[in-house]
TrEMBL record:
This is Helix-turn-helix domain-containing protein. Keywords: DNA-binding, Transcription, Transcription regulation. Residues 234-332 form the HTH araC/xylS-type domain. It comes from the Bacteria. Pfam families: DJ-1_PfpI (PF01965), HTH_18 (PF12833). PROSITE patterns: HTH_ARAC_FAMILY_1, HTH_ARAC_FAMILY_2.
């Protein structure tokens, strides 16, 4: 059976540890029990901490460990452990500062194990990606993390190719999953890689998991785009909040802000990570999401209210930004 080691540390999110342990331990088990068949466990799991000490999670629960990560052999065995770093639940800087030894230990995963080069050998969930990035493991790799911390992550680790819309990324032997409960998706994805698609599908059905998710864009918002100190851009953002339904050009935005078009683009992107046009599209999509969640207005009417004329173009843009067509979005999130 494949061995899976989850790394525990104080301030971790308990559900990201216990939940993913449940998934791996019950792969090949729960489905068989439901159908009166003989269970065939596919994975063994263990929780590893520094010195084998208990792990006190952010919700106050203390988890007993099965040993120390310092003793884990990641190089010599063909069946080397799959290592998973869970979500950081406590303040991220605090956890990074408290775990220099763990960060140094993780850095050994910079190259894949020669005996299992085709497999994912290290994975993180949500903000656990900060620990991988701090160890230098994600430089020049695709990665994802919780959408709400994506700006902070980009500023701190500019060499990482962060794709926050993705729910799961795999680049070489390292996988990352997005926000909080994405350990579901990460677990099912890794189980499929190690135990096959049938085992993963059966597990998803047994746990009533929507295995078709591939984006966290439907859950993200615009609030992170305001975490900056450029007063001119903040004033422009406030204006756009009230006028997004109007016909707006880049030239009119430059005139309103008192900047040249070139300076506006440069300062807006520096402050928010987006161009003014891209940000306007995001505001309009956010407004459309609110209409779809809270009203029964036809998609055509929603399109007009948020500043677009062509329904087909709007629908393509909406799907690109949220991962869902307008009708599918309303079905999932409408009240």
């Amino acid at each position: 059976m494949q061995k899976v080691s989850i790394i525990g540390f104080d301030g971790a999110l308990a559900s990201a540890i216990t939940g993913i342990i449940d998934l791996f331990r019950l792969a090949g088990v729960t489905w068989a029990r439901i159908h009166g068949e003989f269970p065939e466990p596919r994975f063994t799991t263990r929780l590893l901490t520094r010195n084998g000490d208990p792990c006190r999670c952010i919700n106050g629960i203390t988890l007993l460990s099965d040993g120390s990560w310092e003793e884990l052999d990641t190089e010599t065995t063909e069946n080397a452990d799959l290592v998973i770093v869970p979500t950081i639940g406590a303040p991220i800087d605090q956890v990074l500062m408290a775990n220099p030894d763990l960060i140094i230990w993780l850095s050994q995963f910079s190259a894949p194990n020669r005996n299992s080069i085709s497999q994912v050998q290290l994975a993180s969930n949500c903000t656990g990606a900060f620990l991988l990035a701090e160890a230098g493991l994600l430089n020049n790799r695709e990665a994802t993390t919780h959408w709400g911390f994506s700006n902070s992550f980009r500023q701190r680790y500019p060499q990482v190719n962060l794709i926050p819309d993705k729910l799961v990324t795999v680049d070489g032997h390292i996988a990352c999953a997005g926000g909080g409960m994405a350990w579901w998706d990460l677990g099912v994805h890794l189980i499929e890689r190690y135990a096959g698609a049938q085992v993963a599908r059966e597990l998803a059905k047994a746990f009533v998991i929507d295995a078709g998710r591939n984006s966290q864009a439907p859950y993200s918002g615009l609030q992170t785009k305001r975490y900056h100190s450029d007063s001119v851009i903040l004033t422009l953002q406030d204006w756009l909040d009230s006028h997004y339904g109007e016909a707006i050009s880049l030239q009119s935005l430059a005139a309103f802000s008192g900047l040249t078009t070139r300076s506006l683009i440069r300062r807006f992107k520096l402050a928010t990570g987006e161009t003014p046009t891209g940000y306007l599209q995001s505001i309009r999509i956010e407004a459309a999401r609110r209409h779809l969640e809270n009203s029964r207005l036809a998609v055509e009417e929603v399109t007009r209210l948020v500043g677009y004329e062509d329904v087909s173009s709007f629908s393509r843009l909406f799907r690109k930004q949220t991962g869902l067509a307008p009708g599918a979005y309303r079905s999932r999130f409408g009240r």
